[in-house]
Design goal:
mainly beta, about 190 residues
Amino acid sequence: MRSILLIAGLTLAQAQAGSSQAAPFTCWIRGPADKLAERASPLDSIAVQIGGGTMKLCYSRPSARGRKIMGGVVPFNEPWRLGANEATSIRVPFAGEIAGVRVEPGTYTLYAIPAASKWQIVVNRGVQRWGVPIDNEVRAKDVGAGTVTTESLGAPVETLTLKFSPAAGNATELVLEWEKTRVRIPIRRAS
């Protein structure tokens, strides 16, 4: 377990806008790896094979713990980091689109501007950074934003969960679930 945590501390941006055959992607963390276990919101990562390449996302997983999430912990109409701790990051090994935003191969961060029924999903070039604040300096590195709709869940999800839907050809969805909200973010590889 300790060696896995140390590997997670390696650099995040080994493959900034370059070859789709880039070096393996690891989750960037701020601070010593031996302190990760003390965090209230644990680090997690997910990956999916799409169009011959592996896309990987790193994020931290906060829990509701009795708090109001949507419109509370996750404020409406303000930037939110899609998790906790470090900025949520994604390595895309190919040219494509995230929420309709054109991206080249490389590493990006994602954040959202949630509202009750629609969210803006923002793709940003600023990597290896803490998730807040999302201020003018951070926003100056925005690549673009797309809009997705929310869905209501029947049962609440206690801990923020991000997962990739099974890839279909050159496309997948990044699915976010927390409290009673689900958001599907389309991702596709360019033809």
